[in-house]
Amino acid sequence: MLSVKMASETFDELGQQRNAQSLRFMFGLSSKWMLSETFSFSNHHGYLLPGDFIQHDSLKGNFTDGEKKGKYFPYRFESLNINLKYRFLAHDADQRHFRMAAYLDLSGGNEAHYEAEPNLIGDNGGAGLGIIATWLIHRLAVSINTGGILPSPYLEPTTQIRMDYGKALYANLSVGYLLYPAVYKNYRQLNINLYSEFQCKTYGSASITENGYPVTIIQAPTLAAGSYIEWRPSIQFIIHSNTRIDASLATPLYNRSWVHNYPLYYITVTQNIFFRGESG
Q: For the sheet containing 61-64, what is the strand order?
């Protein structure tokens, strides 16, 4: 099986429209192993940290109060993420199943990401591990995804700046319900699902050095440790069992993420291609 997923998110940042897109290719290596490659693009970062990100003062020394939001950055390719997933448990029955899988994330790139919160799709290089469990009981679907992120530092050779990001733990809960059809007749019927997703994340603070000397961080919530919970209600359409369209809106429930503003709009289109007699 080959799955192609196009994802897009957008939000307003003080008059600058921030856009991020990703293109994922997922290959079914066997009934238990899946390999994904995700290419990410955005206008979230410059090629280097902004020139005024670190300031120099004879009394304060080298310091930063974080990045000033709303600056223009070019839209460009960011990074490649590799995900390897192993399904180690599967109990399938008619109109119900329980499955669990473990996965490994590896991400390249050296983006000038100026918030403490790490993200392996686009913002940071690094590695991650996680476990995902899914339940399906007739019309109700529940998914729990939990894991951790170990980001690699940002290195800027021309200015000898090094920025280390906070390690992160996350847990996401998704609950979906099949609204249509009322009765299944065949797998080519249109499916309409309502989803409610809760994304929880906690991460450590960032640290910065320039020429080997520490840079003082002054009143910069974007660089401090944090935790938050977001609510993402969404609607999902499944066409002919092979094409899936999701549209969602993110809003904060507890604290907030500093890597984007709210509301955050998100849409994905996924196309599954089956081979050799496989079916959806």
A: 55-57, 61-64, 216-217
Q: Side chain identity at 272, as an amino acid letter?
A: N
- pLDDT tens for 231-245 read 999 999 999 889 999
Q: What is the pTM of this model?
A: 0.92
Tens digit of each residue's pLDDT (9 = 90 or more) over 107-145: 998 999 999 999 999 999 999 999 999 999 989 999 999
Residue 279 in domain: no
Does 87 score more than 60 pLDDT?
A: yes
How many structural domains are present in the chain?
1
| Domain carrying residue 14 | 2-273
Does the residue 95 lie in any domain? Answer: yes
Structural domain includes residue 278 = no
CATH number at residue 174: 2.40.160.40
Work out the average pLDDT over 62-89. Answer: 94
